[in-house]
């Protein structure tokens, strides 16, 4: 028989508590500035982590450490190129990494001011990805650039500049080129619509992408003691590339530790979790994973960074 009279209790005054009233959010009010809004967020869970990431990015910018921004194509399709471009202009982002689809959507915005076809509808008749201009321009640019010893990203950006595309100002690639920010592209053969076209030269694409990989290895050395890596919306390619580049950099004798990583995504993904947030900082540093829609989270993060700067 349980004897509750023997139960031991204690005063909550001496008990540890994880959440204090001082951590509460500030109530909403009309006309509040962004800075007041951001500082008014609760100092709890992901809001607290977001503040830590902002501080890490600001520290990196002020101490001239690398801030490497890796993004999937969805970031561009969500209309966030101006946000990324502004962070490059502010000398916050020091390196941009894209997958092959990111280049495609970025080019189409620069060329037409629009992108993203109806995949399901066009797939019915084999028309999916058969747009002429996109494949011809990018494949030719990569072929020319590879022959001149350039990386994939730089090769395409340079040709966009020479072509003086109507909407170049919307392009992450073109702005990176103009600002002299390394823009690196990592492709997996068969994953992109331009690989279906006869203009695709697999040797040139592989060679140019490998050069970008070596550039990333070099850029990673400046993460040590205060840099930041952000992966926004790439579920597989960029987290895998980052892990191998980090390993190679360390193997070549670079000290790359005590930095911050962040995965921003709409879903919790295995590779960003393991290859960005957890494994790279096991020897020192912090990793964060914040879930939410890119079109909300990235502008929020960027504005908070700019306010602090």
Summarize the structure.
By secondary structure, this protein is of the alpha/beta class.
List the defining traits of the structure above.
single chain; 309 residues; alpha/beta; Deoxyhypusine Synthase; six-stranded parallel sheet; 6 strands; 11% strand; elongated
SSE layout:
Layout: H1 34-39, H2 45-62, E1 67-71, H3 73-77, H4 81-89, E2 95-99, H5 100-112, H6 119-123, H7 132-147, H8 152-163, H9 172-179, E3 183-186, H10 202-220, E4 228-232, H11 237-251, E5 259-265, H12 270-278, E6 285-291, H13 294-308
Parallel strand pairs: 1-2, 1-4, 2-3, 4-5, 5-6
Helix pairs in contact: 2-13, 4-9, 7-8, 7-10, 8-9, 10-11, 11-12
Structure overview:
This protein has 309 residues and is an alpha/beta fold. It has a single domain (45-308), classed as Deoxyhypusine synthase (Deoxyhypusine Synthase, 3-Layer(aba) Sandwich). 49% of the residues lie in helices and 11% in strands. It contains 13 helices and six strands. A six-stranded parallel beta sheet has the order 3-2-1-4-5-6, with helices on both faces. The longest helix has 19 residues, at 202-220. The mean pLDDT is 97.
Q: How many alpha or pi helices?
A: 13
Distance between the termini: 65 Å
What is Rg? 22 Å
Number of domains: 1
The structure class reads alpha/beta
- Strand adjacency order, main sheet: 3-2-1-4-5-6
CATH topology description: Deoxyhypusine Synthase
Biggest beta sheet attributes: 6 strands, parallel
H/E element order: HHEHHEHHHHHEHEHEHEH
Percent range of helical residues = 40-55%
Low-confidence stretches: none
Give the number of DSSP strands.
Answer: 6
Question: CATH H level: which superfamily?
Answer: Deoxyhypusine synthase
What is the CATH class name? Answer: Alpha Beta
């Amino acid at each position: 028989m349980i004897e509750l009279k023997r139960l031991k209790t204690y005063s909550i005054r001496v008990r540890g508590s994880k959440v204090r009233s001082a951590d509460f959010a500030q109530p909403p009010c009309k006309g509040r500035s962004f800075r007041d809004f951001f500082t008014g967020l609760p100092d709890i869970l992901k809001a607290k982590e977001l503040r830590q990431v902002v501080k890490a990015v600001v520290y990196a910018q002020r101490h001239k450490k690398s801030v490497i921004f890796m993004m999937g194509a969805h970031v561009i399709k969500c209309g966030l190129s101006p946000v990324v471009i502004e962070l490059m202009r502010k000398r916050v982002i020091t390196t941009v990494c894209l997958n092959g689809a990111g280049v495609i959507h970025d080019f189409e915005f620069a060329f037409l001011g629009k992108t993203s076809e109806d995949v399901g509808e066009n797939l019915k008749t084999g028309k999916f990805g058969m747009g002429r201009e996109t494949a011809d321009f990018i494949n030719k640019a990569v072929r020319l650039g590879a022959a001149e010893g350039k990386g994939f990203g730089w090769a395409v950006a340079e040709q966009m500049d020479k072509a003086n595309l109507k909407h170049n100002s919307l392009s992450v690639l073109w702005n990176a080129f103009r600002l002299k920010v390394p823009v690196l592209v990592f492709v997996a053969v068969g994953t992109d619509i331009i690989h279906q076209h006869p203009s695709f030269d697999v040797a040139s694409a592989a060679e140019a992408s490998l050069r970008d990989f070596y550039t990333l290895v070099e850029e990673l050395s400046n993460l040590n003691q205060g840099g930041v890596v952000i992966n926004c919306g790439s579920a597989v390619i960029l987290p895998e590339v980052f892990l191998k580049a980090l390993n190679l950099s360390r193997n070549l004798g670079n000290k790359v530790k005590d930095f911050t990583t962040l995965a921003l995504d709409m879903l919790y993904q295995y590779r960003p979790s393991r290859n960005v947030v957890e494994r790279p900082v096991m020897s020192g540093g912090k990793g964060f994973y914040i879930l939410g829609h890119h079109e909300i989270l990235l502008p929020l993060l960027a504005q908070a960074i700019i306010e602090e700067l």
